Amino acid sequence: MYRIWIFVAVFWTMGLGINAQPRAILTLSAVVDTMSLASPEAQIQHLAFENELLQFENYKKGFLPSVSFNLSPMSFNRSIVKLQQATDGSYNYVEDYSSSSSTSLSVQQKIPFTGGTLSASSNLNYLNELSQKRNSFSATPIAFSYSQQLFGSGKTMRMEKTIEYKRNEANIKSYCKTVSGIQQKAMNLFMDTFLASLEKKLAQSNRLSTDSLLNLAKVKYENKRMTEADFKQIELQALNNTYLEEQAIKNVEDAIRTLTTFLGLSTGSEDIEVESPEFKLPLSINSQDVLYYIDRNNPALLNREIRRLEAQKNLYSSELSRKFNANINLNYGTNKYSPNFSDLYTNPSQQQSVSVGLSIPFSMWGINRNTARMAKNSYRSSMISIEKETDEFENDINRTVNNYNHSVNLWFIAERTYQLAQEQYNLTVQEYVMGRATAYQLIASQQEQSSAMQKYYDAIRNAYDSYFKIRELTLFDFEKNQELTDVLLKPEKF
Fold first, then answer.
1. Given 171, 277, 289, 466, which is the most exposed site by the fewest CB atoms within 10 A?
2. d(CA 6, CA 213)
3. How far apart are the two ends of the chain, measured CA to CA in Å?
4. Mean of pLDDT values over 481-488
């Protein structure tokens, strides 16, 4: 009868679960799609991204008219100053006892087509000579000025504009790539917790079964139906399973604590359990589709284009410095001086000025030539580097897609293998209870079960690792068939 009683006890204990119900069950989709986006790391990246957007906004507004108003309500001075006479060059010391005030308004506008700067200004000055009890006013009702470099400034400004717009586009996609990387990190932490949970459940199940088998072994040993070596082997296995269970419990707590800390959750590890991820990924991904979305969305290609444009701009600037050039300044306006404010804006006189500064490279002992050659070498080096990176990038893409498709196939194989290993272990336990299996066969079956569990987890982990790497490279969610830029960016911000 003891066999039947122990046989029932073994399978009753193996079927027991943990009675305490978890307060929260975390799913992979919730962790990746929602919680990771509210994590502290995601918030920090979002604030940095906002600064990049504001910086680009400032660049665009730099082409709008810049208006400035200056006001000096009062400036008072009473001192002895040195004054040189115009007739004989002698010096006299006179008292400066006066107060003054001034105001001005200016508008400045960049001209993208020419690369010059146009400005308009107006100012008014008031002087009160307290020692003479005399007032005077001076004003420039309107003044225009325009300045630019004769050659190259327009093209340089247009090249800079192209680079800035490309850089802003790259910043947007880089932000999405960064957030996708944060989601991938959250997925990895979830998978670490899932592995610890698998190990814990398996360890608990093994410990319960070996505890019952140990009780059976004691009865057998006491009744001389088992050798001492077999009994101690079962006892050793029971102790090992107890140790593994304790270690697994600790690993689960540590993994959950790491995950919740990353997500910014305050819930204790004892209140959380992770759900086994279901297979919802695409059965396969075509490498041509991946290349299409990489070409469309990946910021690395844009950054290479920016490097190429910057190299072209530097080469152009270097060539420009070797050629004849000039700086042109044009000024036109009116001004007036009057002791009375009422006459200040009546019939003002004109003021005009034109200045041209020439820059003619004559002899720099070959410095400009060497500088231009250095710029050409840098440009060629950038082009070779970009081409090399492109080839390596495509090889990495094909390798990642191939890994994903194989990992999906291994997932189903490993899942079925783990199920069979569990069933085989349960059958071996039954055989051992009935006396038709040895302790060594039981231990070997348990090891096969643990090995199958690890392969099952590795297959899931590899599939998700490859998928999230493809997701990060393409900024496209093949599972949901949507662009990550549509998900991670709020339209009203752009």
1. 289
2. 8
3. 78
4. 86
Distance (Å, rounded) from C-alpha 220 to C-alpha 187?
48
Smallest CA-to-CA distance from 333 within 67, 98, 123 is with 123
Are 61 and 216 a contacting pair, CB within 8 Å?
no
- Nearest Cα to Cα of residue 213 among 230, 234, 198: 234
Residue 4: the pLDDT is 38
Strand, coil or helix: 348:
coil
Say which residues have a Cβ less than 8 Å from residue 58's Cβ, sequence separation at least 6: none
Q: Which residues pair with 122 in a beta bridge?
A: 105
Residues contacting 64, CB < 8 A, separation 6+: 109
Residue 185: per-residue pLDDT: 93
Q: How far apart are CA 460 and CA 397, in angstroms?
A: 20
Confidence (pTM)? 0.73
241: tokens are: 């399973």
In one-letter notation, the amino acid at residue 231 is: F
Residues 160, 164: Cα–Cα separation, whole Å? 6
**CA angle centred on 34, ends 29 and 35, rounded to 5°:** 100
352 pLDDT above the threshold of 60: no
Cα–Cα distance, 322 to 151 (Å, whole number) = 12
Residue closest to 177 by CA, chosen among 389, 485, 494, 492: 485
Q: Per-residue pLDDT tens for 191-241?
A: 899 888 888 888 888 888 888 877 877 887 788 777 788 888 888 888 888
Residue 271's contacts (CB-CB under 8 Å, 6 or more residues apart) are 22, 23, 24
SS (H, E, C) 145-210: EEEEECCCHHHHHHHHHHHHHHHHHHHHHHHHHHHHHHHHHHHHHHHHHHHHHHHHHHHHHHHHHH
Residue 19 sits at φ, ψ, to 5 deg, of -70, -35
357 compared with 71, residue with greater pLDDT: 71
Each residue's pLDDT tens digit, 374-415:
767 777 776 777 677 666 777 778 888 888 899 888 988 988
Query: What is the side-by-side strand order in the sheet with 134-149?
Result: 66-84, 91-111, 116-129, 134-149, 325-338, 349-359
User: φ and ψ at 423, to 5 degrees?
Assistant: -65, -40
Residue 5 in tokens: 């009683």
Long-range contact set of residues 452-458: C-beta below 8 Å, sequence gap at least 24: 452/414, 452/417, 452/418, 452/420, 452/421, 452/422, 453/198, 453/199, 453/202, 453/418, 453/421, 455/414, 455/417, 455/418, 456/198, 456/414, 456/415, 456/417, 456/418, 457/191, 457/194, 457/195, 457/198, 458/414
Q: How far is CA 479 from CA 24, 284, 285, 362, in A?
A: 25, 10, 10, 65
% of the chain at pLDDT higher than 70: 85
